[in-house]
Amino acid sequence: MRRLTPLLSRLFGSFAAKKFPKPIQSFINSSYVFFLKVDLKEFKKPSKYESLNALFTRALERPRELEGGIEDLISPCDSEVIISNKIKKETILQIKGMEYRVDELLSDFTTLKRLSLLQNGQYINLYLSPKDYHRYHAPCRMKILEAHYIPGVLYPVNKKWLNKKESLFPLNERVVLYCKNAFESYFYMVFIGALNVGKMSFNFDERIKTNPKNKVASYYTYKDIWVEKGDELGMFEMGSTIVLLLEKGGFSVDLKDGQKISFGQIVGKGLKSD
Predict the structure, then answer these.
(1) pLDDT per residue over 156-167, tens digit each?
(2) Could you tell me the pTM of the whole model?
(3) Is residue 74 within 8 Å of 265, Cβ to Cβ?
(4) Which sign does the torsion angle of CA 121, 238, 163, 173 carry?
(5) Per-residue confidence at 10, pLDDT binned at 50, 70, 90?
(6) Which residue out of 137, 148, 185, 201 is catalytically annotated?
(7) Which of 79, 57, 82 has the alpha carbon at shortest distance from 238?
(8) Phi and psi dihedrals of 5, rounded to 5?
(9) Could you tell me which residues are beta bridge partners of residue 236?
(10) Lowest mean pLDDT among 30-44, 81-95, 260-274
(11) At a CB cut-off of 8 Å and minimum separation 6, what does 96 contact?
(12) Residue 251: strand pairing partners
């Protein structure tokens, strides 16, 4: 399974990207929407997408309203909150009863000082199901300081697998963004690869390539990339997970495990206002 998942994901990605004749493609798209109960009220009709991948990565037909002020944190995606809690003793949970270390998730992409700033901060595990809107956005006005591609396997990230596979996220392929908001509060956004995720893409840097045949870690730094709250950062080409790691004192988060949230919905009140 460990060796096969990247290959299976690339094969599925090839199928999803294929443009079939319009009647066949419309049938594939409509079947997907019907069986997964995909809500398309904010999107085009299934027949309007020229491939299954185009349906997966569909864009909103009109902008969403963004809740809260400039200092507040919104959800970067449509998702389910699998778990949200404080970071204690440098460990967090992928699901209740299954913990792993923050430094395992971030790999060589962190320092002891950065880890200490996360202690007693907050983490949020957001799961995007295959029926969700697959694009992700900036949760606040933020400066992207660094990005790191970490190779790995592509285990599924649904609840069944989170409950049975220890340290699943640190094993999976992922992209880590290190960011700060307009009030100098630092945080990480960790984008987790999963089975059948053909790739993740990032609008601000086309060099970031995921699920490549040659799996080599890559590291990028940026001098002046500011993105506004709600700006599109990129997309998954199937359902997956985003983990937010928030520095202590930056935000006050109040979420319930199992809660469904939408991109644009406020998830944290900003604590630094000067």
Answers:
(1) 898 999 999 999
(2) 0.91
(3) yes
(4) negative
(5) low
(6) 137
(7) 57
(8) -60, -40
(9) 200
(10) 260-274
(11) 83, 257
(12) 270
Catalytic residue among 72, 75, 78, 185, which? Answer: 78
Q: Residue 223: CB partners within 8 Å, gap ≥ 6?
A: none
Alpha-carbon distance values, 185 to 92, 243, 244, 263 (Å): 20, 17, 13, 21
3-state secondary structure of 260: strand
For each of the domains in the chain, give its residue range(s) and CATH number, in order of start.
4-56 (no CATH), 73-270 (2.70.70)
> 188 with 148: CB under 8 angstroms?
no
Q: Is 134 a catalytic residue?
A: no
Residues 6+ apart with CB under 8 A from 122: 84, 85, 86, 87, 244, 245, 246, 251, 253, 268
Alpha-carbon distance values, 8 to 11, 158, 244 (Å): 5, 17, 28
Active-site annotation holds for 273: no
Query: Active-site residue 78, yes or no?
Result: yes
Tell me the two tokens of residue 13: 């990605």
pLDDT in tens, 100-117: 999 999 988 788 889 999
How high is the pLDDT of residue 14? 72
